[in-house]
Amino acid sequence: MSSLAGRPARRRRWSTVAVWAGAVGSPFLLELVMLSRLPGPARFVLPFLAMLLPWLLLRRHPFVGLAALLAGLFMLTTIDPDPPTAGPLLPGLPAHPARIDDSGYSMGNLLALREVHIAVVVLAIGWVAAHWPRRVSIPFAAVALVVQVFFLFAFPVINLDFGTIVVVLLTVVAWVIGHSVRQRRQFTATQREQRTAQAVQAERLRIARELHDMVAHNVGVIAIQAGVGARVIDSQPAEARNSLTAIEATSRDTLAGLRRMLGSLRQSDPEAGTAPLGPAPGLAELDTLVDRAEQAGVRVALTRSGDTELPPDVDLAAYRIVQEAVTNVIRHAGTDRCRIELSATDTEVRIVVTDDGSGGPVGAGYGIAGMRERVALLHGEFDAGPCADGGFRVAATIPVPA
């Protein structure tokens, strides 16, 4: 097993050695190809491939790759011992007369290969600017520019002013384009990360709302029933048994809701399977909610109008708002009765929950804020606060999409 595990590592080491050998040795390979007097198209294809070998180092070692590129350019610049004074650096310039040197290439072909190599260096500048930060790409471009301008002055083949301007412009344009590509890529990645973070935050808020609305209501009912049972267990054992029965039913409902929520969260996990989740609660369960509130000691007067089938998100939001408002009555209002008014039409659902309790100010807890968020997400209107004649009022209007 150890020998099998070591094979990939050895293979990677040998591939790294091969890349370094090919890239660093590319100038010598280029010179060897140039002096070998190869026949036909191979005389131009093989030098071009040798020019590209240093690119293998640009991803990890850009300056080593640049050194190999410039060494190849130096070899092409100095291979002819007596270069002429003009050449086809750009279309439209006067061409050199056909002349054969020791390599077997005409001077025009040699100058064309030099121009191709300069283009390869310029492309390398753009590639490095697109993949490396400015602290690397700027020195890379500066070194490439200085060395190329030096070659122009040391081995002049065209007008120096014209050649210098061309090389400087090509270098600057290549760096600017590459850097722009890098900035655009970084901007896109940043936007993607922000969208992901916003989606995660929105999902956390949704989970927090669901947990609060479901658990807070049911646990509040359980706490009240437990208190009632503890007080009457000796004097009214039948009433204590009723409280325990209500606690059991509410606990089972809470567990079912938690399982449903955990199941919905596991839907995003491909390995979690496809367990049935059950329907989300809605206004169809309003009677059950009223029964539990009455078991907790709060009499509920429910008034309904309209019998419109609602979209799931509106149905869930309406139910949670009623549930949270009733929970607040049970836990905070200090009264034994409340009123729920529910009206549904084809265009909107209106919910009003009022009580005649102490009617304190709007608290800083999550309940009111959670209801307000639910309504805002569905582009509705929400209001909560004490009534003028005492008590507390929660009102929400949720539009129904057409």
Structural summary, described in words:
This is histidine kinase. The structure is a single chain. The chain has helices at residues 2-24, 26-35, 42-52, 62-78, 107-131, 134-154, 160-232, 237-266, 286-295, 312-333, 366-377, and strands spanning 299-305, 337-344, 348-355, 381-386, 392-399. It is rod-shaped. The chain is 63% helix and 9% strand. A hairpin with a 5-residue loop joins strand 4 and strand 5 (392-399). Strands 1-2-3-5-4 form a five-stranded mixed beta sheet, with helices on one face. The longest helix is centred in the middle third of the chain and has 73 residues, at 160-232.
Coarse structural class: alpha+beta
The overall strand count is 5
Largest sheet: 5 strands, mixed
Uncertain segments: 81-102, 270-276
State which percent range the strand residues make up: 5-15%
Strand order of the largest sheet: 1-2-3-5-4
Shape: rod-shaped
- Helix-strand topology string: HHHHHHHHHEHEEHEE
Helicity range: 55-70%
**Rg result:** 39 Å
Q: What's the helix count?
A: 11
Mean pLDDT: 76
Q: How far apart are the first and last residues' alpha carbons, in Å?
A: 65 Å
